[in-house]
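seq as requested:
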Amino acid sequence: MGQGLVVNRQRFICPHCQLHTNICVCDQCQAVANRIPITVIQHPSEVGRSKGTLRILERCLDQVQVVVGESPKQLQRAGLSLADLNGNSAVLFPGPTSQLLEEADTSAISHWLLLDGTWRKAAKILHLNPQLATLPRFHFAHPPASQYVTRKAPAEHHLSTAEAAAYLLKTLEPGLDVQPIDTAMAALVDKQLAQIPPELRNHYQKPGDP
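struct tokens:
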């Protein structure tokens, strides 16, 4: 193959999110000045996945920390000491003892933890880290319909990580404008749908589409 036919693939990779420009939405990500900090525990299997939405939060939120790990040792190395967490921190993940976020008094909670991974992988993070189970735990009573139609969810009421964070902050900080997250999510879905053959796109209809 001649030198003139060699394509420099790096030219098409975003230096910020490391995704191909065909699905990069960094130019759609605007600042969201959240007052309440969020820590996202990302399962190692999610790192590098092109369908992940955590990159949107990293680009938008003023106060967000991402730690990658599954076991306590991995989380410790990533900068999260579970032993230092107390009742001022809470986990957003449904369970037998979780409370309805919209109906609960969350005024004492100043730090939220979200889990980024498949349902099974997120549950495993909780199982491997008993200290997380000692924290107050919440789930959504009336979440909006997910627009992330290009990635299969376990159930209709499940949201992507970016959507969950946006709804969480909208509930906790009513004056906060989380529209930049929603805009970036919509752009991501549109770009992903554009990569799907036209004859197959009807399998990925957004809620409310005819």
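Residues 1-8 have pLDDT under 50 and may be disordered.
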